[in-house]
Write a structure and sequence with these properties.
α2 packs antiparallel against α4 (about 70-90), α4 (about 70-90) runs antiparallel to α5 and α5 runs antiparallel to α6 (about 120-135). About 75% of the residues lie in helices and about 0% in strands. The chain is mainly alpha-helical. It contains seven helices and no strands. It has one domain (about 20-150). It has helices at about 1-15, 20-40, 55-60, 70-90, 95-115, 120-135, 145-150.
Length: about 150
């Protein structure tokens, strides 16, 4: 029995070290970035980078109209551009915590004002992914880590 415990301890040590955490954080970054990148792609014309569709403007004016204080056309632009910028930064691991915080903010706006019924089915996962990145950063496979090493931290 003690050899099984020793084996378990060795495996736990391996996966909880810097390498294991770095891989887990990279996969977390990939998952969160993928969710928002794919959403951003649905808001733009096929074959373009950032030409927002008329359908997107229509949805923000009619279906997503519960978002307070922001005109619908501005909300459509901010959401679309954010769904491109922050996933790229998160995937690179550049400004990971700030980018994850921005996507967490978007998630909370969506949850509170657009799709309040989607907490358990969708948004809880997004919050968990963003929360991990806010708490832990991008890990050793990130540009944040490279910048920290260059600064001597």
């Amino acid at each position: 029995m003690s050899s099984a415990i020793a084996l378990y301890d060795r495996i736990a040590s391996l996966v909880s070290g810097k390498f294991g955490e770095g891989i887990a954080l990279f996969v977390t970054r990939l998952a969160l970035a993928g969710i928002f990148w794919r959403s951003g792609r649905t808001k733009v014309e096929d074959g373009t980078l950032l030409d927002i569709t008329d359908t997107t403007y229509f949805l923000f004016e009619n279906e997503y109209s519960g978002v307070p204080l922001i005109p619908s056309d501005l909300a459509a632009q901010l959401a679309t551009y954010s769904e491109f910028l922050f996933p790229i930064l998160i995937l690179l691991g550049l400004g990971t915590r700030l980018s994850a915080l921005a996507l967490l903010g978007m998630t909370l706006v969506i949850q509170l004002f657009v799709y309040p019924e989607a907490w358990w089915s969708v948004h809880l996962l997004w919050v968990a992914l963003a929360g991990i990145l806010i708490a832990r950063g991008g890990g050793f496979l990130s540009l944040d880590e490279l910048a920290n090493r260059m600064r001597g931290q």
